[in-house]
């Protein structure tokens, strides 16, 4: 018979029946015991092949049960089994149904509905009429309320322009305790636009210039013509120096309340006199390294390490307590004195530290005194260990802040020498206009979701604010929401972690600073009087920042 007349013959490719026959032949050859002789001298008959596990079925390792394999027909050719019996099922189980939202009504429920990952502490603080100042920078705010945020959507051109004008002229907006029709309130919508404005330098629209720490991935691949052009780098740094100096002069004249300098390694917060409970200009730097601190010392900049000094003071108090206990329980007061003095070591002891107490005890020959090099290495080890940590925060006060200004302008390591941020000047963030600054606005959008409450679904409305949210913007927004949402809302705050430590208390801060003096000294700083009053208080959050803020019945509670 000609090859063309053979059923199922295909010269260029194999049809499905032929492919299945080849598959079954390979299975028979690979079966164990294939060489066992069959009765009557017939060709050896292979036993049934072990069932293979379907990778698309359930996750257990048990193979799927199969029925007995049909016996081959005479001549060794496989029988014409039905096509569907030779194929493995693609899926044996139906996909599980999507679970219904849980019955929780707290912040975590809404966060799940919005596909957000939120970690909220359990214990709230007691309600108060004002929340403490948070000097950390926020990358994102998520406000939630049972009342809609339609008043924050689709601002008219006139309202947007009026909001910009109110910001530039520092016009104070005072809303009633509750706005009856927020969507129809032009005053509310203009004030909302006003609260979103901030000032930035440099302004490169194709680059995200905040945050700068850990931003290499976001900046990588973007156009940076200055990275290989030294002349262009010098122009950028020259413009940046002018803007930086302008901001400091505004701060000194109390026309700017504060501003941030964001480098690729650390962030600096400059605050005017009268803010954070201090009667002089202050600057906090975090995180720092041993090299940066040494360079500052070499330039004659006096600074302190508040967290290190606080830890040392706490150890000394504990040592004094242990010393008193030892004096009470010991018969040899002199030995207890020596033990007490030894129990309070300091990482910053003088290099020529005295070991005369060893001679008094008569063990000077048995104890090996550390030499000067060992003492220096031990100190350097302790200094390096706190690098890039919150404990490395440095505080600069008074006229030393001007020395810090000159140091940062001339510091070569202020700008990255390699990588995606190479040659890019630090980011300057300010609540008010300054020379070379560009007006920017935070991005706002409203999101609607549903949450299950007592076997029913209720609408939960949210307002998302994205961008470098500074302390004054956070307070201004909460004042607006207090009136627009009838004194009931909650918020999740996403902190730029390197700046959380800016909330520590300052040395020699004056908690009883006269409010009249503050308002007199900061008349035109551009902040609302209530915001200025909040930012003038001594910081109380320590190394943490506010993560969750809630208002009920016009009273705040927060979690950090």
Distance between the termini: 88 Å
> Which consecutive residue ranges, at least 5 long each, have pLDDT under 50?
38-42, 58-62, 70-111, 113-123, 330-353
Mean pLDDT: 78
Q: What's the assembly state of these chains?
A: single chain
Structural class, by secondary structure, is alpha+beta
- Strand residues, percent: 5-15%
Structural commentary:
Helices cover 31% and strands 15% of the residues. It is built from 15 helices and 13 strands. About 16% of the residues have low confidence. Helix 3 packs across helix 4, helix 4 packs antiparallel against helix 13 and helix 13 packs across helix 15. It has a 7-stranded antiparallel sheet with strand order 6-5-4-3-7-2-8. Among the domains are: 148 residues, no CATH class; 78 residues, no CATH class. The longest helix is centred in the middle third of the chain and has 24 residues. It has 560 residues and is of the alpha+beta class.
Features:
seven-stranded antiparallel β-sheet; 31% helix; globular; 15 helices; six-stranded antiparallel β-sheet; single chain; 560 residues; alpha+beta
Short structural description:
This protein has 560 residues and is an alpha+beta fold. Among the domains are: 107-170 and 442-504 and 539-559, no CATH class; 308-385, no CATH class.
């Amino acid at each position: 018979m000609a090859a063309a007349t053979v059923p199922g013959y295909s010269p260029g490719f194999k049809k499905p029946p032929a492919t299945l026959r080849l598959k079954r032949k390979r299975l028979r050859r690979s079966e164990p015991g294939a060489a066992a002789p069959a009765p009557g001298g017939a060709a050896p008959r292979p036993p049934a092949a072990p069932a293979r596990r379907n990778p698309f079925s359930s996750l257990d390792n048990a193979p799927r049960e199969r029925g007995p394999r049909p016996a081959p027909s005479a001549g060794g050719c496989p029988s014409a089994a039905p096509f569907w019996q030779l194929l493995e099922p693609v899926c044996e189980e139906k996909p599980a149904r999507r679970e219904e939202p849980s019955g929780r009504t707290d912040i975590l429920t809404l966060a799940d509905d919005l596909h957000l990952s939120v970690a909220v502490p359990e214990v709230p603080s007691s309600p108060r009429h004002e929340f403490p100042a948070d000097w950390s920078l926020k990358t994102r705010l998520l406000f939630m309320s049972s009342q809609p945020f339609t008043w924050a959507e689709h601002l008219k051109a006139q309202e947007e322009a009026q909001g910009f004008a109110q910001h530039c002229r520092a016009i104070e907006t005072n809303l009633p305790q509750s706005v009856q029709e927020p969507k129809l309130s032009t005053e509310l919508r203009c004030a909302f636009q006003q609260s979103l404005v901030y000032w930035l330098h440099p302004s490169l629209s194709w680059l995200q210039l905040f945050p700068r720490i850990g931003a290499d991935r976001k900046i990588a691949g973007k156009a940076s013509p200055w990275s290989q052009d030294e002349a262009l780098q010098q122009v950028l740094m020259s413009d940046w120096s002018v803007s930086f100096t302008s901001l400091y002069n505004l701060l000194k004249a109390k026309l700017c309340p504060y501003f941030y300098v964001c480098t690729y390694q650390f962030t600096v917060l400059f605050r005017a006199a009268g803010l954070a409970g201090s009667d002089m200009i202050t600057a906090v730097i975090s995180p720092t390294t041993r090299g940066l601190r040494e360079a500052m010392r070499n330039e004659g900049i006096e600074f302190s390490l508040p967290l290190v000094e606080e830890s040392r003071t706490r150890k000394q108090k504990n040592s004094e307590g242990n010393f008193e206990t030892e004096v009470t329980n010991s018969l040899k007061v002199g030995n207890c004195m020596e033990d007490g003095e030894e129990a309070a070591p300091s990482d910053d002891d003088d290099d020529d530290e005295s070991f005369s107490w060893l001679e008094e005890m008569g063990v000077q020959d048995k104890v090996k005194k550390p030499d000067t090099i060992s003492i220096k290495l031990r100190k350097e080890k302790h200094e390096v260990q706190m690098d890039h940590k919150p404990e490395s925060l440095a505080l600069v006060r008074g006229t030393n802040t001007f020395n810090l200004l000159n140091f940062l302008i001339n510091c070569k390591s202020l700008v990255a020498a390699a990588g995606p941020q190479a040659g890019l000047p630090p980011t300057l963030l300010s609540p008010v206009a300054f020379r070379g600054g560009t007006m920017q606005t935070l991005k706002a959008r409203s999101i609607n979701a549903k949450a299950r409450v007592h076997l029913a679904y209720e609408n939960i409305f949210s307002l998302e604010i994205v961008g470098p949210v500074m302390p004054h913007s956070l307070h201004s927004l909460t004042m607006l929401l207090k009136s627009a949402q009838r004194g009931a809302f909650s918020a999740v705050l996403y902190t730029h972690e390197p700046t959380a430590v800016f909330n520590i208390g300052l040395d020699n801060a004056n908690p009883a600073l006269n409010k009249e003096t503050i308002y007199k000294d900061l008349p035109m700083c551009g902040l609302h009087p209530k915001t200025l009053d909040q930012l003038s208080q001594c910081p109380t959050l320590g190394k943490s920042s506010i993560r969750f803020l809630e208002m009920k019945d016009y009273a705040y509670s927060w979690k950090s």
